[in-house]
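Reviewers of the previous submission asked for a worked example of the structure-prediction workflow described in the proposal, so we include one complete record here. The input consisted solely of the amino acid sequence. No template or homolog information was supplied to the procedure at any stage.
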Amino acid sequence: MSVVERPSIPRGELGGMLLKLKWLTGIRLLLASAILGSAVVLDLHERLPFPTSPLYGLLGLTFGLSLLYAVALRVQRYLLSLGVVQLALDLGLVSLLVHFTGGPDSVFPFMYIFVIFAAANLLGRRGSLLVAILGGGLYGGLLEAEWTRLIPPVEFEGGLAPLRPGGYALYQVMIHSVAFLAVAILSSHLAERLRQTGQELEQRGLDLRNLQALHQAIVTNVPSGLLTLDLEGRVISFNETAERITGYDYESLRDSHWQDTPFVECPVLAEFFAHPDAHLAAPAVEVFLQRRDGRSIPVGIACSPLRAADGGPVGLVAIFQDLTERKRVEAQLRRADRLAALGQLAANIAHEIRNPLAAISGSVEVLKEEVALTGPNRELLDIILREARRLKLITGQFLDFSKPQSLLFRPCPVRPLLEGALQLLAKSAERNPMTTWIVTEEEPDLHVLADSDQLRQVVWNLCLNAMQAMPDGGALTVAIRLPSGQSGNPATGQPGASPDCQIAQLPECHSMEEWVEIAFQDTGRGIPAEELDRIFDPFYTTRPSGTGLGLAIARKNLESMGGRIGVDSRPGTGTTFRLWLRRAPVAVNDQIPMTNGSLRLR
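From that input alone, the workflow returned the following structure tokens.
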């Protein structure tokens, strides 16, 4: 319900006024109940100091008015006027109470003080002084009227009228009036101080809430994981970034000892809790952290002791970050540096070797035709020609690997391209007759945005590697599908990565549905784990006749087309290479040129 009030009370203070009026109503009922109990006790005596029948009527009127006040407060309108009316009626009720309980001999003039207190709380200093003056006036007028018999005084039981000197009534009025004014001044001062203190506390409470909200926002939004431990090594805070990095939520780690957390291998924590007062020798370290899902990730941890005002340690705070992406970028930069050096080397080799090699091979061909050699000499010429062709192939691969190429992007149908490459490989000498293959497609007619010649070379190299890995025959399964988080992540090229799509370095792609995955799974001998990180390096090969450039060229071509490649292998069970390329609508016919590996999308 909307609150309507006079302009004398600011809208922000209406809630406080309402609360004060509720307290006033409650205290009035409490005092009335106490007087009612006293009247009941007096009725148990034979001789009463004053008649109690009018007192019961007065108390009934008080309870009735309090009920009306409570109903009026539910409306929450005209609160200031309602407070003034209550104070005025309370003065009248107290005056009647003094009259019916003996007038000058009444013990209840102190009840005016409660009304003055209420006025100081509701109306401030001026209001309390005004109520004190009115209370003193009512009390003095009542005594004057009773002393002059203008109002018949209430007679004591037995008809005995007390004999008082003439100045008694004047003394009572003066002493009570001074007391009322003193109470008004003191109570208004205390009420003002209380109001100021309340405002200061409210402001400080607001500042504290704002500070807590700011602290919570900083802790929540800080891009690093935050772990706080007490001096016993138990977890007392763990922010959201820490939950994302470790996979553990705060509730599962709360009050856990640090040795029962994923940070058990952190040497800084062990050093601190072994000697809390000692200086940390290496506050920042890099360790591998075991996530809740079982993956091990590199993290950088910086620790700092929490100290009390006296400088003593009270705990430890650890700030950590996931270094997986940074390590991947560093590896890419190192590979790029190696590739740049190899590119320069390849250009020099091609320049220095191709021309002499062509002259040598041509001369040997002429010599072979003009000189009729047989036996071992003929075999030597064949070896020279074979090795010359091999050197020519190597230098050609060098050039393909090193020089930038202009790519023509267009939607390429994936399955026809794969089947065409496999049909050519069926006639290759590298294929064992016992080797079979199958192509599966999750969704028909999938297209990718790529250069068809470059993609065909990538497919050829991967299928050729798969057949060479199965010299005794086997099965090659090529699956075309939309990627899922369980099969891999296009952003990192890591098979079995997190199902979250984290394609940060490809801003034009925002979901897994914009990729197409091509998986080549063989049943060969597999690749040892220590070799997986090197198979894409140039010149690294495990075959005596290999050049070590096939996978390096495949990776370079894929990255130049905005794609990714990943590998998953277990010795003895086979290897799976996965390619991720941008999905292209079938209806797109625009050709998109690409130069020097930079993609220009429309």
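The domain at 327-400 is CATH 1.10.287 (Helix Hairpins). We consider this example representative of the routine output the project will generate in years two and three.
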